[in-house]
Design goal:
mainly alpha
């Protein structure tokens, strides 16, 4: 949590170090994994510039297939 707070106030942790520390912390605080997934999903939906995403945007929708693909790719057997 100290690393997250430091990054929120301007300090930058190298990506690899942040990811390694987050992965280690999820073992004790599983909620952090969920929170990270939610933040990553929101980022994907808000900043994607693919043709598929633009089609959804024209219909007033977010492209939630992005985070579903992420989950299915990250966790073997997730689709079952």
């Amino acid at each position: 949590m100290d690393v997250v707070l430091a990054n929120a106030t301007g300090k930058r942790t190298p990506c690899a170090a942040f990811t390694d520390q987050l992965s280690a912390a999820v073992q004790d605080f599983p909620f952090l994994g969920y929170l990270y997934f939610e933040v990553l999903s929101e980022y994907l939906m808000l900043h994607s510039a693919t043709a598929e995403t633009k089609t959804y945007a024209q219909a007033g929708e977010l492209n939630n297939r992005l985070y579903k693909r992420l989950a299915h790719t990250a966790v073997k057997g997730m689709e079952q």
